[in-house]
Amino acid sequence: MKMTPGHASLPHPASDGGTPRLPQYPFFQMPVFARFTPARRRPDIEALEQRCVARLSGLLRDAFDRQEELATFLEHRTSLWSLLTYASARADRIELLCAWIDVLFSIDDVFAQAPPARIRQLGIHELPAVIDGRSPAADTAFTQAFRQLRDQTLPLAPERVWQRYARTLHEFLHACHAERGLVQNLAALDLPTYEKYRNSSIGECCFPLLEVGLGIDLSDRLQELSELRRLNMLVARHWIGVNDVFSYRKELYGGDTMNEIQLALAENGGDLQAAVDRVAATVHRVETEFDHLTTKLRAGLTGRDSGFLAYLDALEAMIAGNLEWSYLTARYNGRGHSWNGLTNTTVILTPSRTLYLPHEHAPVPDTGDAPTPGQP
Predict the structure, then answer these.
(1) pLDDT tens digits for range 61-84
(2) pLDDT tens digits, residue range 290-306?
(3) What is the pTM of this model?
(4) DSSP-derived secondary structure letter, 200
(5) Distance (Å, whole) CA 277 – CA 31
(6) Angstrom distance (rounded) from CA 62 to CA 209
(7) Per-residue DSSP letters for 74-133?
């Protein structure tokens, strides 16, 4: 099969020490997402991350078969995601928010990677009972973690905020189950279906949790203002697009089809740059609408309702935080990854690592044989 634009050859030593072979890797020009960068950083972020990692290690130690698996998960720095996205959460609540999101990241991995028997063994099917305050039939690391986090959250969250959060946790678990089936049947997956489930598995639960972190209750505002409900959806949609651009390497070599890039490739004949550009165009449209709605809502408030204004400000921080974390995390970029700070860059997707190169060092498309999709 002949090479299509979007693959490049990089020098790679031959295993026998002879002439170097030149494996071909997908590459693309990274879209510039400049509107919400850089992320805000709390002054104590390094110490907070260390404390969150230590707590996570104890909370989920028994959810991993081997210590190496736990170490790999900790390298993803999921706590840093929360510290960057919940940049304005109260200091006395941020670690609780981190713990919730860390556990949800781990559950997402279980659904993506574990066989059905392991999912049952971990008691994932018992988590709805724990969310509702009922006793689970199984006692596992995840049921214990959910019970502990629920008990810590209930005294802090107004009743209506907790009820909304509990509902989105149920929807998160349902979406994870549904996505597992969709991954096995790409033909059944279209963009509206994809957006529906990814909105639940990526975004919705994060917004009532933000209210907990800020110490506010926007239940009435959410009922009154369709624009506010729309803003939450726009933030989640921004996350979906950004995350799919950055996670494509991981999912390409792992055979995961739950990615908007994969949908675009299936529709455009395999042009990777065009697929990335299509996703980026959606993200930029989301940014424009987000700016319009926040400007409108702020003008309507005329300085009233400080909690609402803080929430609008926090949503901007959530967009910027997710974007910066996507450059930093080994979850998307490969174990041992260290970001070089480049954003206007050529991205090369090797099986083990994402490479961010200056444009002047960008590869020239090869004319040899392309690798089999999903293989190095």
Answers:
(1) 999 999 999 999 999 999 999 999
(2) 999 999 999 887 557 88
(3) 0.89
(4) I
(5) 7
(6) 25
(7) HHT-HHHHHHHHTTTS-TTTHHHHHHHHHHHHHHHHHHHHS-HHHHHHTTGGGHHHHHTT
